[in-house]
Amino acid sequence: MNIEIKKSIKPIKYVDAIELLEARLKDISDNKKNDLIWILEHEEIYTAGTSYKEEEILNKNIKLLKTNRGGKITYHGPGQLVCYFVIDLKKRQKDIRKFITLIEKTIIESLNEFNIKSYGDSKNIGVWINNKSGIKKVAAIGIRVSKWVAYHGFAINIKNDLSKYQNIIPCGISDKGVTNLKEIIDQNYDGLSDILVANLSRNLET
User: Fold this and answer.
1) Cβ-defined contacts of 18-24 (< 8 Å, 24+)
2) How many domains does the chain have?
3) Boundaries of domain holding 83
4) Cβ contacts of residue 194 below 8 Å, gap of 6+?
5) Which residues on neighbouring strands pair with residue 57, listed in sequence order?
């Protein structure tokens, strides 16, 4: 199956990204275009998924954009790798839970190549690290499925400003923290996006 790979160098506004994803969603539903994987970075923004609650906003002064993806509140900004996709599940298995597990597996495999051991949690979607400082989330996943086409994606914290998460209860989970890759192991992560794309493409074909 042909998958278009798109990489943006400059930070992309969140609303512009969603507009492009929704246009691609329609094109795929109409059999006009191929699936898409898109690597980018966002300008600073807090976004709320469909299941967020008002009490998860700890700082009422932040600007919050409500979205149609699944999940709760998260933060996007510089130093975070965002991977969006528009993937036709009609050509694969029509199983949303299995698809989310595939995304988690892709992230775990990719981080493993940097000697970072991470895991998925059946109760809390995302990818987690358990080290001496406790259990912390390193990657958040939020997807929406329309007519069996999955879109939105995931974000991996590489060297973003973790203090931004103090304004919210990230993903609605208050008893676990948030970390980034630089905090776990301070090394070069430049190759991560290519490894992620390769692993995600491979996992989608198997």
Assistant:
1) 18/67, 21/84, 21/86, 21/151, 21/152, 22/151, 24/86, 24/151
2) 1
3) 3-205
4) none
5) 168
Q: Are 103 and 141 in contact (CB under 8 A)?
A: yes
Does the global pTM surpass 0.85?
yes
- How far, in Å, CA of 41 to CA of 50, rounded? 22
Catalytic site positions? 171
Q: How far is CA 29 from the centre of its chain?
A: 22
CA 127 from centroid of its chain's CA atoms: 10
| 72 within 8 A of 51, measured Cβ to Cβ | yes
User: CA-CA distance, 37 to 3, in Å (whole number)?
Assistant: 7
CATH number of the domain within which 136 lies? 3.30.930.10
Distance in angstroms (rounded) separating the CA atoms of residues 180 and 201: 24
pLDDT tens across the length of the chain (206 residues): 689 999 999 999 999 999 999 999 999 999 999 999 999 999 999 999 999 999 999 999 999 999 988 889 999 999 999 999 999 999 998 999 999 999 999 999 999 999 999 999 988 899 999 988 889 999 999 999 999 999 999 999 999 999 999 999 988 787 788 999 999 999 999 999 999 999 999 999 98
